[in-house]
């Protein structure tokens, strides 16, 4: 290897008091290649079912050239770490790092899945927070996926992301969510044959109740949470109800993929490029009751209904295309969307850390208390939002409604109120009772 590659250290990961938790913590790493000489490839042995994996290198310890530390550290209190992320390098000669920001902690559940496989590398490359923002990734999986998580960490090592300073993996949310400033909750049980919507609400609801409790206990008090695992609106409600010490406004259900799909279809119909479509709102639940709002959307600054004269297409075909896009993709591709979902998560995060363009807005599922639209309170509903780029948002007030839009919104609202009754036992409101009459799960969840 070239002389500028980083030297890998020998690291033995010892057992922990969490006998059922395969958690590999990390310490801060800084890359300064001109202080290092040779790169050694490490071999990662398969993880035994009941104990920690041992990490070993192909060179003897006395052959590994130690990096120059920034300062003396108390090694007794230093947390256990993963591979190359165990090392600390001298940053003093790296002038450009003087402008770098404070490390930001991002926790991701379902981190061994297909969506995360696309998402993590976008995060590590700086696509969300920019080229001067160091990042720590805290990856949550299950006992079944722990070895796959090790593989993810190895790929992150091999990608040489200069912004990626820490990687930790584990199966205990109380460990992985420690000090998290962003939590991207992707992991959830998929819908399988014979599994009713009510059953899925209960099974996944229990997952998000536990993760809400963990976030409440150990995450940053201002953590931003984006729930992707379905049914994501009600899972978000469950999560926030189990995290009373975190502002309810900080929780989001991902509907950005639906917004992106709607923008694509409007652009295709109008014969323009995507960037000409703005002010696109997805109202309601992330289900087939969702409402892509063409009344308030614009194409090149002009209301959509003035550009696309075929209003029957807008009311029927356009809406159905967006609602069923996931199912069509499965038939073509053989699996549900992963890459486009990861892109939409990045878009959703960027919408909160980047000021919204003047006059525009974005869609996200948020807590309805205090909303100006007359939508039932105490549910999570996708609505139009703006941000100043500080991680917070405000609801857009200058919205037009007609009978068509209100009737569609009311149907999605009723569905979410019914879902809330199903999970009453998970949000501290008594015994859950399901009376959902229609199965509106998105095709991609079947």
From TrEMBL:
<comment type="similarity">
    <text>Belongs to the LDH/MDH superfamily. MDH type 2 family.</text>
</comment>
<dbReference type="InterPro" id="IPR015955">
    <property type="entry name" value="Lactate_DH/Glyco_Ohase_4_C"/>
</dbReference>
<dbReference type="InterPro" id="IPR036291">
    <property type="entry name" value="NAD(P)-bd_dom_sf"/>
</dbReference>
<dbReference type="GO" id="GO:0046554">
    <property type="term" value="F:L-malate dehydrogenase (NADP+) activity"/>
</dbReference>
<feature type="domain" description="Lactate/malate dehydrogenase N-terminal">
    <location>
        <begin position="105"/>
        <end position="252"/>
    </location>
</feature>
<dbReference type="Pfam" id="PF02866">
    <property type="entry name" value="Ldh_1_C"/>
</dbReference>
<keyword id="KW-0934">Plastid</keyword>
<dbReference type="GO" id="GO:0006108">
    <property type="term" value="P:malate metabolic process"/>
</dbReference>
<keyword id="KW-0560">Oxidoreductase</keyword>
<keyword id="KW-1015">Disulfide bond</keyword>
<dbReference type="InterPro" id="IPR011273">
    <property type="entry name" value="Malate_DH_NADP-dep_pln"/>
</dbReference>
<dbReference type="GO" id="GO:0009507">
    <property type="term" value="C:chloroplast"/>
</dbReference>
<keyword id="KW-0521">NADP</keyword>
<comment type="subunit">
    <text>Homodimer.</text>
</comment>
<dbReference type="InterPro" id="IPR001236">
    <property type="entry name" value="Lactate/malate_DH_N"/>
</dbReference>
<dbReference type="InterPro" id="IPR001252">
    <property type="entry name" value="Malate_DH_AS"/>
</dbReference>
<keyword id="KW-0150">Chloroplast</keyword>
<keyword id="KW-0809">Transit peptide</keyword>
<dbReference type="Pfam" id="PF00056">
    <property type="entry name" value="Ldh_1_N"/>
</dbReference>
<dbReference type="InterPro" id="IPR010945">
    <property type="entry name" value="Malate_DH_type2"/>
</dbReference>
<protein>
    <recommendedName>
        <fullName>Malate dehydrogenase [NADP], chloroplastic</fullName>
        <ecNumber>1.1.1.82</ecNumber>
    </recommendedName>
</protein>
<dbReference type="InterPro" id="IPR022383">
    <property type="entry name" value="Lactate/malate_DH_C"/>
</dbReference>
<feature type="domain" description="Lactate/malate dehydrogenase C-terminal">
    <location>
        <begin position="255"/>
        <end position="425"/>
    </location>
</feature>
